[in-house]
Amino acid sequence: TIMNKWNNSECAPKAQQNCRYEHKFCEYHIGVRREEKCKKMGGIAVIIADKNDPKKILIAQQRGGADRGKYSIVQGKIDPQDNCCFKKAALRELAEEFKIHFNDTDFSNYFTLNNYINFINTTGTTIFIALVPSSLVDLSVINAEIALQCLSTDEATWHLREVCDLQWHDISSQTTTSRFANTVIKQYSRWLKTHI
Description:
There is one protein chain. With 196 residues, the protein is of the alpha+beta class. Strands 1, 2, 3, 4, 7, 8 and 9 form a 7-stranded mixed sheet that branches. A two-stranded antiparallel sheet has the order 5-6. Strand 1 and strand 2 form a beta hairpin. The protein is globular, with a radius of gyration of 16 Å.
């Protein structure tokens, strides 16, 4: 789900609300959203690209909502447990949707180039970019975990079964992707030309 505004009082962009971990990246983005006066607040998203072939990214088929059946990247919102931290939200959403569990060291290794965090912005959403060796992503194991969780009917765990059919996607090929994913892929293509 994409958050259109800061609708959670525990993580609303108020003067006293900042990233609990004091990340400069988070503070900058919270400041930008404050300057925009909260009119169009977005969430976070994550692109996982193959480090050896960055034109290949991970996408998964959406199981519900307006984009049901279409493919997209990890996307979500900053929840209260993220303590207004974009980084924590991105890692949590990545684990929930794509079953890829990264820690802070992994973030430093895969989400940065020359000590700068890889990201783009679109429609009020901060999109993190991770360059990961494809050998670290075992699609058969991940898709089996996703399939197992999809058997559950517990409404409390719906967020753990939003997607199915995780796969590598060449950004130059045609696939039925969501409108959001199409927009992000176009921006990511421009980012690749200037950063890789």
